[in-house]
Specification:
The chain is mostly helical. Helices cover 74% and strands 0% of the residues. The protein contains eleven helices and no strands. It is globular, with a radius of gyration of 19 Å.
Length: 284
């Protein structure tokens, strides 16, 4: 397989899996066992491509929140149900996004300081995929019960924002967990019973989180001089592939969850995790 084709496939894998609740990091680590290890800069670039796609999808929402935060214009955009937000509501929502991001940033820096590194074996990723599937089904059942007792709730509470921030850190520590899956279901369990509202908050808080992580890693890569040896053609192909596929994947997911539960993704996680344990029993 040529290097350009391998880069293309890795970009597609990142774009599809970054915002679906199936773990992009887990899939990339598995794919690199067959397609070859890539540089930190390469992985940063394809992640940035996926972030760009979400920024484009939510560009109006982000603009509305920014204008509302600054107190300009009324109403300041709409929530996932199409209900107009006042500037005060937009500011409240923006502050909760910042709170979730701050929790993640502090937790992420602490994890870095402790010297944590991604696993090199497949076995822990496989188990994380399986256990994450169990968690998704259990969490969705509990969330459905809360929705039945509490009614439709789209509001993001301060507790939800803090827990979403913690969930992002946990997902980063355990590849295979899925950042999007962890944050969406934490939001659902914390009281935001509407799937669209929980998903939107999880995706929006992922934008500053992933941009900050990308910038942090990029500074390290540029500082140690490894960027000078990068294959920029392969990197550009992977970046474009990640952005395009992430755009399509997120658009599809936002339509899908309007009338479906997340059970399909849990089943997928079971199948992939079990297949990995059977095909690579020693985890090498």
């Amino acid at each position: 397989m040529t290097d350009l084709l391998a880069a293309l496939l890795l970009g597609i894998i990142e774009g599809i899996t970054e915002f679906l609740p199936i773990s992009s990091t887990g899939h990339l680590l598995i794919a690199e066992h067959w397609l070859g290890r890539r540089s930190d800069l390469f992985n940063i670039a394809i992640q940035a491509g996926a972030i760009l796609a979400v920024v484009l999808i939510y560009r109006q929402r982000l603009w509305d929140l920014a204008m509302g935060f600054l107190g300009r214009g009324a109403p300041a955009g709409h929530d996932p149900a199409g209900i107009a937000l006042t500037p005060a509501q937009a500011r409240d929502y923006a502050f909760k996004l910042l709170a979730a991001f701050a929790v993640t940033a502090i937790g992420g820096l602490l994890v870095k300081a402790l010297g944590w590194e991604l696993p090199e074996r497949v076995t822990p990723i496989a188990w994380a995929l399986i256990l994450g599937g169990v968690w998704m089904i259990a969490a969705e059942q509990l969330a459905a019960r809360r929705a039945a007792s509490l009614g439709e709730r789209m509001q993001i509470s301060w507790l939800t924002a803090i827990l979403v921030g913690i969930a992002q850190v946990v997902a980063g520590v355990f590849p295979g967990t899925s950042r999007s899956g962890a944050t969406i279901f934490v939001a659902l369990l914390a009281g935001t019973t509407n799937r669209a509202a929980a998903t939107e908050f999880a995706f929006l808080v992922g934008i500053p989180t992933m941009f900050a992580a990308t910038a942090y890693e990029l500074l390290d890569v540029v500082g140690d001089g490894t960027a000078a040896h990068e294959d920029w053609g392969a990197l550009a192909i992977a970046f474009a592939a990640s952005a395009i596929t992430a755009f399509a994947a997120v658009k599809w997911l936002l339509r899908y969850i309007q009338s479906h539960r997340f059970t399909l993704f849990a089943v997928y996680r079971f199948v992939v995790g079990a297949a990995l344990l059977l095909l690579i029993p020693n985890g090498a």
